[in-house]
């Protein structure tokens, strides 16, 4: 038994699909931010720096991380959980921060891995993952929020 309205588009447990996805993305980003501080999950942990290309720590041996990048992931995840309390907030989180991840990707590709301007310690895998994440977040925000206005009127 659920508390979902049978007429609403994609409503589960009192939350819309866009809210569930926003919360899910927020939780994943918080987990990634926390795991970035755990030795073993983050290899070369002794090389973890606060910021910059000198941080050689590798999350899951794939993604270059710094303390600042982990903190940014935690902050974005917490923002996602907070904003996903309602449908429009979740939509705005997914689309706005999806755009931010695309900007991170383009910035990382432009400045390069070894550049002093690479203050968040992005590597090539980070850059492409941020691009895919950003596009997926924007797509989910757009696709899952198309019926928010209709649902609000029928409640």
Q: Give the uncertain stretches in residue-range form.
A: 1-7
Q: Based on DSSP secondary structure assignment, what is the total number of beta strands? A: 5
Major sheet details: 3 strands, antiparallel
Mean pLDDT: 90
Number of helices: 5
Strand order of the largest sheet: 3-4-5
Strand content: 5-15%
Structural class: mainly alpha
User: What is the global morphology?
Assistant: elongated
Distance between the termini: 19 Å
The helix/strand series, from N terminus to C terminus, equals: EEHEEEHHHH
Whole-angstrom Rg: 18 Å
Task: Set down the secondary structure blueprint.
Elements: E1 11-12, E2 15-16, H1 17-35, E3 42-43, E4 58-59, E5 63-64, H2 67-83, H3 87-111, H4 124-144, H5 148-154
Explain this structure to me?
There is one protein chain. 57% of the residues lie in helices and 6% in strands. The chain is mainly alpha-helical and 155 residues long. The strands form two sheets. It has a three-stranded antiparallel β-sheet. Mean pLDDT is 90; it is low at 1-7.
Which labels suit this protein?
155 residues, mainly alpha, three-stranded antiparallel beta sheet, two-stranded antiparallel ribbon, 6% strand, elongated, disordered N terminus
């Amino acid at each position: 038994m659920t508390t979902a309205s049978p007429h609403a588009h994609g409503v589960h447990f009192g939350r819309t699909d866009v809210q569930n996805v926003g919360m899910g993305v927020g939780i994943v980003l918080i987990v990634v931010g926390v795991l970035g501080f755990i030795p073993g999950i983050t290899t070369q942990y002794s090389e973890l720096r606060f910021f910059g290309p000198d941080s050689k720590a590798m999350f899951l041996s794939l993604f270059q991380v710094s303390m600042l990048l982990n903190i940014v992931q935690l902050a974005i995840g917490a923002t996602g959980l907070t904003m996903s309390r309602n449908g429009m907030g979740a939509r705005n989180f997914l689309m706005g921060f999806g755009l931010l991840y695309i900007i991170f990707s383009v910035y990382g590709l432009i400045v390069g891995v070894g550049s002093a301007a690479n203050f968040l310690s992005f590597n090539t895998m980070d850059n492409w993952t941020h691009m895919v994440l950003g596009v997926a977040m924007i797509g989910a925000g757009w696709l899952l929020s198309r019926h928010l206005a209709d649902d609000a009127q029928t409640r």
